[in-house]
Design the sequence.
């Protein structure tokens, strides 16, 4: 089974990560609500209200394909490790996130954990921002090439997987 870790790109249409993971096998679509992320100063209750609406829409879109979104709350490494003990996870697919230092550090921890757990981790670039460039030279042609890529197809169907989801906490609980 492959995990598609949804972070900020909460849609099924033109979602390269979802298309690639579905082509490789059964998919467990996952969103991890991370309380430590929501404690960061650049997030607010208004952001959380929008996120909840977006997750409901995403789950409905995924359910239409055969498998609703699985939501877990906690530290990303701990959540992924728990899922790996519950399921035979072949790979984790995710978009490369370019948000803030906290998410960058979190992603590095997840990648290190996946490597130690011998679970493949595939990270797809999501937009024109390129991580780890030594200079801005050459950025524009890379951006142009990415923007010319064809739209990723929506999978025809997702096979149902056995995994429990947890309810989203209220804003006050978070």
Sequence:
């Amino acid at each position: 089974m492959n995990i598609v870790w949804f972070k900020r790109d909460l849609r099924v249409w033109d979602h390269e990560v979802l298309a690639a993971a579905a082509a490789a096998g059964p998919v467990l679509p996952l969103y991890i609500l991370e309380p430590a992320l929501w404690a960061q100063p650049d997030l607010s209750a208004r952001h959380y209200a929008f996120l909840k609406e977006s997750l409901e829409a995403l789950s409905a879109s995924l359910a239409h394909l055969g498998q609703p979104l699985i939501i877990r709350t906690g530290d990303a490494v701990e959540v992924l490790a728990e899922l790996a003990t519950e399921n035979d996870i072949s790979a984790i697919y995710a978009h490369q996130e370019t948000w803030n230092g906290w998410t960058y550090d979190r992603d590095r921890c997840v990648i290190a954990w996946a490597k130690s757990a011998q679970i493949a981790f595939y990270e797809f670039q999501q937009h024109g921002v390129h991580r780890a460039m030594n200079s801005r030279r050459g950025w524009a042609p890379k951006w142009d090439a990415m923007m010319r890529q064809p739209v990723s197809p929506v999978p025809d169907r997702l096979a149902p997987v056995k995994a429990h989801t947890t309810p989203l906490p209220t804003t006050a609980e978070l």
Q: What stands out?
A: Residues 56 and 145 are 33 Å apart (CA to CA). DSSP finds six helices and five strands in the chain. The mean pLDDT is 92.
